[in-house]
Amino acid sequence: MSGPAGREPRRPARWWRRRSLRTRLTVIAATAIAASVFVAFQVGIELLNSELQDTAEDQLRADSRVLATNAERAGPAQVRLPPYPGSGRLVRVVLPDGSTRTPAGQPALPPVSEHAGRVAQGASADLLESDDSGGYLIYTLRAGDGAVQVARVTDDDSPITRFGLGMLLIGLLCVVGGALVGRAVARAGLAPIDRLTAAAVRVAHTRDLDADIPDEGGGEIRRLIQSINDMLAALRDSRRAQRLLAEDAAHELKTPLTSLRLNVELLIRLDRRGTLDGALPAESRTRLLNDLGAQVAELSTLAAELTDLARGDVGDESTELLDLADVVAAAATRARSRVPDIEVALDETSVWVNGRPAALQRAVLNLIDNAGKWSPADQPVQVRLRAEGASAVLEVDDAGPGIDAADVPRVFDRFYRADSARALPGSGLGLSIVQRVVDAHGGRATVARSARGGALLRVDLPAAAPPTEGQRPSGP
Fold it and tell me: Could you tell me how many helices (H) and strands (E) the chain has, helices first?
């Protein structure tokens, strides 16, 4: 029993949230006008009541002065009282002994109050009082040796009633008109949003990301449409990149998989015939197994690089202040452990950057691996790190044949491999990953010819101020 009772106050809120924006604007407009009319009605009633009260008091004082003047001339006991007209004011003369005189046929007034009696005795000049029992407003004025009283009924609120009915009718008309105007304004104001919603629904149903939403309206509506068009453009680029990645990955996986399948089928066929040992000499079998191992390693490398490229998690790693020299040294150590034959010559100085350590180390490792493929056995890969202005400059060069001018614009493209590199191991993704990491750090990657005739790959990253002694990290 307590559950529904506890949820009851939330029902109006749920009802309100389920209404359309057009309905909400209409209700808000009508409510605002109704509140305004109600406030205006209350203020008008108070002003009208105050004005009527002041007018009644002024009229009582004026009538009392006329009657008091006559009473002073003829005396309170002898003054001629005007006949009762049947409605309106009531008059009475209070004599010194406390008795009263009233016109014939006039309704009886409440008994003379103690304060009014003091006015008749000369203790006070005048008195304005109200009698709640009969609803009278009575003004008492000293006249001769007595007093005169003029009274009016205060519960006659017909002007206020008529005013209230008029205001109520006007208020209802204003509320209805306000609701209609609010509905029309909401319809006109939300028309661009309706068209925007229809266009978004059409895009969602047709999956057509190439159809931009027409730019119309102004202000917030225009910014909203531009934001949605920018989002559609980003989705188009993302879908195009996914399609290209899938196509390139299928193309690159096709060659090693085909070679691997042919070699495995050959082994299976010879094994089924029982001629594996006779058909393949030990040397050929060793070479075939080595080829299989190389193809599996190539597939593993390609799968890892595809995962890194497709996942796009450079931004997932937290940024920290680090010495790029530590990152370069760690990458060189990993390169030597992966390819023992590679020789890396380091020439580095301490340069601090704000970066992601793992991503930067992967980029440097890819640069060294790429240079190691081209460097002759007796020529080391030279890695130089220095500060140049507000940038940290990393250069990796080899003594290989260099990069043809026609291949330079596409060096950092995904899966791109120059004709001279087709026979070398690799997927063509290493430098593309370097480009992505450098872009994520706000840097720039370029390629040129080194002084030794090979390729010179250069990375410029924004440098950071070195930390103070107490802020330095404890390790690389």
Answer: 11, 12
